[in-house]
Amino acid sequence: MKQKSEQSxxxxxxxxxxxxxxxxxxxxxxxxxxxxxxxxMYETRFGLDLGVVIGAAPKxxxxxxxxxxSVTGACLHFGDEEESDxxxxxxxxHQCNSCMHCQISKEPEKMKVDGDVTWIDxxxxxxxMARYAENAEKEEYAIRICREKIKKHxxxxxxxTTHFLLGEPKVxxxxxxxxxxxxxxxxxxxxxxxxxxIELRQIGVRDESRLIGxxxxxxxxxxxHAMTKEMDPVTIKMAKEQNLSLNSMKxxxxxxRLLCCLAYEYDYYMEEKASCxxxxxxxxxxxELWRVTEINILSHTITLMASEGRTLTVPADxxxxxxxxxxxxxxxxxxxxxFSAE
Length: 342
Fold this sequence. Notes:
Elements: E1 11-18, E2 25-30, E3 39-43, E4 48-56, H1 81-87, E5 110-112, E6 118-119, E7 122-123, H2 126-153, E8 158-164, E9 170-176, H3 184-194, E10 197-202, H4 205-212, H5 223-226, H6 236-241, H7 248-251, H8 266-273, E11 282-285, E12 288-296, E13 301-305, E14 311-315, E15 319-322, E16 327-330, H9 332-341
Parallel strand pairs: 2-6, 9-10
Antiparallel strand pairs: 1-2, 1-4, 1-5, 3-4, 3-7, 8-9, 11-12, 12-13, 13-14, 15-16
Helix pairs in contact: 2-3
């Protein structure tokens, strides 16, 4: 395997690589251009194994470029009958079969290799790909054998999946358990059957979902299985800040833990709320004090309540902090407009 210290040039093409077995996402470097779908061999946390290139890695400190706001589908030509006639000879043929590549993929560029970047060992050969397919069939057999041995020893553990490393003779069994499990005798039985190095790795319920995948409540693949790089912690505070229902059934995923997507917009909500008065803040309107009861970030409005229970919803832009008085105030222009309307 090529190590960073052995490279004559610190600059290389860096790619996002996904491990099909563990769904881990890594940054890997190579000295030539590769495109999405290329199978490669690289050093994973479990050993030398197969990975698939997803695409070129984003450049450090690159400026975010928003996409086209007029796109209504996955393709610029999706559902466009006039355009479809121009590039599809057969009306029964799906238009993607004659793709015009309107969504241009990002070309890889050389960049400085530093940080947590792994060098690709080599491109996967046809023989390695054939062996990978054979291993996939052997994994089903390994699962059945391991479950039989678990039942034989009466171990309180649940086998999730298993994986044969492609780059070395080792098989990994992933399992969940509520407590520590003494599986020494189990390992001896498995070694006697497979005649190779055996590794049993205990994982959590979120890792189980990440490994086996499935459909979430939104109808799409689990985020942890399809796209996220790390299992970042998700807290109930994230749901509270977004004014979501705290019903555990509504904000929990199939794994029983809080939904990963609760963390996606949390930073945005916190940034927007920083420019608004905190809930409970009292604002003087005319000669009456109103209390902030709700801040709706999506509609960009603030709900106020008077002492006798009357409510008032005002645009968040009309409320500002007066550094001179040290109080939050509703703009005089909006107050005039509000009370003149009454």
